[in-house]
Amino acid sequence: MTTTDTIKGKINEAEEMARKIWLAGLGAYGKSVEEAQGRYEKLSEEASKMFDELVTKGETLEDDAKSKFKSTTNDVENRVADVRKKLGLDSEPADQRIEELSAKIDALTEAVAKLAASK
């Protein structure tokens, strides 16, 4: 083997080593990109899952709130109905009952005034 062949061989080896170094760098870059994409996809999946869980929880709370609101509304309506019944507003026309109550209040007012005047 001649000196020229030896030099050419060394140059080829150096070029091959330089190429391998270049490829190793590209490989490292590619691997880091893949890992970053994997982490992003995992975070994206977790965020999506968490969002879905929050939506489900919100729906449950909304249903509970609607149920409680309806129950409370029914209780209030029942209490109003009881008061109306006790006042007799449901058994007769309301205007007539109000006039009767006003007349009773006027009579009581007169009775109290007479008692106060006699003292």
Automatic annotation (TrEMBL):
Q: Which InterPro entries match?
A: PhaF_PhaI
Q: Which NCBIfam families match?
A: phas_rel_Lepto (NF047773)
Protein name as catalogued: Poly(Hydroxyalkanoate) granule-associated protein
Q: Which organism is it from?
A: Alteromonas marina
